[in-house]
């Protein structure tokens, strides 16, 4: 499964509580759609740290890195390249 | 004078009123936007006394709509955006707004909530060049007239709305300005939504003194709030316990050194002492105001003067100017130090009651007095310490146990971000204590660690039988933990 698909699967199950997948585009802003609040963002951060073995600094928890599926995927790839 | 005229009485047109990620707006521009919205409301047939729904995130449009509604003598009904289509429908069925002011984004999100031919005014009206005639007869304003209906959480699952009058808002606003010593130099970072009474009180007070408000609608990413404080040199911030818990445990606040912050306001539930101490250490130059309030009191009821924060740690202080608070025991007498009773409140900010709930009104509002439902004690100087909500006490091994005391103890563990204790039926103990907790990223604390920590620090009847780590505590739209939901989860899973 691609990074994007793993992220969508996680959000669908854990933030949207949906059995029918992630119904948005990969570029959709989580804030604009009300998909996350501060608790939801922290859940996403834990998911990224646990499932992708990425260390997330507090200063990295920004909309630029976490506010859409594509942004999270890009962040994970960037961090993995940096630490590879 | 109508409430909008009162709120804008002291402003200067060329000073900045509102800063958002979209732009900076002066008081002159805010007045223009308000006039545009007022004209649109009148053209849509809104009359004094009509209810107008307001749905959207904090924005120039939201504020202008709110002021316009008040200006023409209609009743503002702010709806939460942290909600569902069904919730909005249920509330609208209850309050029956004649029209909604809604921003395009919220309209798209909650499309199914707007049924039939309900008139809607969108934020586009502020972009339109069309000149509309200003309403000829701004409403004069009756202090006893309802100006807002504020939704609050009821006990029955039915929507519940608190009636708020012009006189209520004026009394509370004047009082808050006095004890916080606010002036036009204040610039507050607003992370709380205006549909929540605490958020609304920030709007009222800062408009009234002609200060400025910086809207941060991205607090889900707490660094964005800290960046805005730095960039806009904010002098104030206001938050509920979860705001500060997030900032202290999951953001760079403790190492940022935010020098411009002078007034830090906290209300909306008890911020545990461990966090107050961390906040004092993180912002040594700021005055930290611990406060207490209820929607039924417009917003605020008490505050602890910052210079007493250390000597009266954990207290909600005393009544704000114009408010009398008394902690009353079961016999109807004021409690003695250490004795627990219910907080009662008197003042011009006390609401006339809930909308269409005569039974609840008779129980909660008695001849100008508000029964808060919060249990508290006092010290020898008559400073008040909230012990718990009446409904949140746990009856364990024959003792009445304060859930907040257990939570406070669990939160001493640095890995714990939030905690909620509930009682679950237990054959041996009556009610056994179950703690739900969330942990910070990279935490290593185990359930056994939590129980061991409680054993060391609490009496036997207060030690939780079980600790459950979950990703998030269920919160209502105001950021308060919903213990009823936790009890449901406990009944289903455990």
Topology readout:
The complex is a heterodimer of chains A (84) and B (494).
Chain A: H1 3-14, H2 38-52, H3 63-66, H4 69-83
Helix pairs in contact in A: 1-4
Chain B: H1 3-7, E1 16-19, E2 24-26, H2 27-43, E3 51-55, H3 60-71, E4 75-79, H4 85-95, E5 99-102, H5 104-109, E6 120-122, E7 146-152, E8 160-165, H6 166-180, E9 187-190, H7 197-208, E10 212-215, H8 222-232, E11 236-239, H9 241-250, H10 253-256, E12 263-266, H11 273-282, E13 287-293, E14 300-304, E15 318-319, E16 323-328, E17 341-347, E18 353-354, H12 358-364, E19 365-366, E20 369-378, E21 384-389, E22 394-396, E23 399-401, H13 403-410, E24 416-426, E25 430-439, H14 447-457, E26 466-469, H15 483-493
Parallel strand pairs in B: 1-10, 3-4, 3-5, 5-6, 9-10, 9-11, 11-12, 12-13, 25-26
Antiparallel strand pairs in B: 1-2, 7-8, 8-18, 13-14, 14-15, 16-17, 17-20, 19-20, 20-21, 22-23, 24-25
Helix pairs in contact in B: 2-3, 6-7
Describe this structure in words.
- The complex is a heterodimer of chains A (84) and B (494).
- Chain A is built from four helices and no strands.
- Chain A has helices at residues 3-14, 38-52, 63-66, 69-83.
- The mean pLDDT of chain A is 88.
- With 494 residues, chain B is of the alpha/beta class.
- In chain B, a hairpin with a 5-residue loop joins strand 20 (369-378) and strand 21.
- The termini of chain B are far apart.
- Chains A and B meet through helix 2 of A and helix 8 and helix 9 of B.
Brief overview, please?
The complex is a heterodimer of chains A (84) and B (494). Chain A contains 4 helices and no strands.
Question: What brief labels describe this structure?
Answer:
heterodimer; A: 84 residues; mainly alpha; B: 494 residues; alpha/beta; 9-stranded mixed β-sheet; 5-stranded antiparallel β-sheet; 15 helices; 26 strands; 30% helix; globular
């Amino acid at each position: 499964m691609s990074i994007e698909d793993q992220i969508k699967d996680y959000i669908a199950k854990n933030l949207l509580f949906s059995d029918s997948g992630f119904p948005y585009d990969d570029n959709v802003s989580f804030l604009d759609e009300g998909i996350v609040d501060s608790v939801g963002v922290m859940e996403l951060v834990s998911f990224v740290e646990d499932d992708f073995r990425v260390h997330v600094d507090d200063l990295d928890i920004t909309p630029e890195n976490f506010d859409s599926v594509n942004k999270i995927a890009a962040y994970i790839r960037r961090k993995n390249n940096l630490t590879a | 004078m109508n409430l909008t005229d009162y709120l804008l009485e002291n402003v200067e047109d060329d000073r900045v009123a509102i800063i958002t990620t979209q732009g900076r707006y002066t008081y002159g521009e805010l007045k223009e936007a308000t006039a545009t919205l007022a004209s649109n409301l009148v053209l849509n047939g809104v009359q004094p006394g009509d209810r107008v729904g307001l749905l959207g995130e904090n924005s120039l449009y939201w504020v202008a709509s709110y002021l316009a509604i008040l200006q023409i003598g209609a009743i503002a009904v702010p709806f939460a955006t942290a909600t569902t289509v069904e919730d909005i429908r249920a509330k609208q069925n209850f309050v029956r707004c004649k029209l909604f002011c809604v921003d395009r984004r919220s309209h798209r999100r909650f499309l199914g909530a707007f049924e039939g031919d309900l008139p809607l005014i969108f934020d586009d009206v502020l972009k339109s060049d069309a000149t509309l005639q200003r309403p000829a007869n701004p409403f004069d304003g009756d202090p006893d007239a309802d100006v807002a209906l504020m939704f609050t959480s009821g006990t029955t699952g039915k929507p519940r709305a608190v009636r708020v009058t012009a006189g209520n808002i004026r009394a509370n606003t004047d009082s808050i300005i006095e004890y916080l010593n606010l002036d036009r130099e204040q610039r507050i970072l607003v992370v709380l939504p205006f549909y929540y009474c605490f958020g609304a009180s920030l709007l009222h007070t800062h408009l009234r003194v002609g200060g400025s408000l910086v809207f941060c609608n991205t607090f889900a990413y707490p660094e964005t709030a800290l960046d805005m404080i730095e960039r806009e040199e904010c002098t104030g911030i206001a938050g509920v316990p979860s705001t500060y818990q997030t900032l202290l445990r999951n953001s760079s606040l403790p190492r940022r050194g935010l020098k411009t912050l002078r007034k830090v306001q906290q209300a909306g539930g008890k911020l545990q002492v461990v966090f107050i101490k961390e906040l004092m250490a993180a912002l040594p130059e700021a005055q930290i105001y611990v406060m207490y309030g209820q929607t039924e009191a417009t917003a605020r009821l008490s505050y602890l003067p910052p210079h007493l924060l250390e000597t009266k740690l954990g207290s909600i202080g005393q009544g704000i100017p114009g408010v009398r608070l008394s902690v009353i025991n079961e016999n109807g007498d004021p409690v003695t130090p250490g004795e627990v009773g219910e907080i009662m409140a008197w003042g011009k900010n006390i609401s006339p009651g809930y909308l269409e709930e005569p039974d609840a009104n008779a129980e909660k509002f008695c001849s100008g007095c508000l029964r808060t439902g919060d249990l508290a004690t006092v010290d020898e100087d008559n400073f008040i310490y909230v012990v718990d909500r009446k409904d949140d006490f746990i009856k364990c091994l024959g003792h009445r146990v304060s859930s907040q005391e257990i939570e406070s103890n669990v939160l001493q563990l640095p890995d714990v971000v939030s905690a909620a204790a509930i009682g679950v039926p237990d054959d041996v103990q009556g009610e056994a204590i179950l703690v739900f907790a969330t942990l910070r990223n990279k935490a290593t604390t185990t359930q056994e660690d939590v129980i061991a920590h409680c054993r060391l620090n609490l009496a036997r009847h207060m030690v939780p039988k079980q600790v459950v780590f979950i990703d998030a505590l269920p919160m209502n739209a105001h950021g308060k933990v919903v213990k009823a939901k936790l009890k449901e989860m406990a009944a289903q899973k455990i």
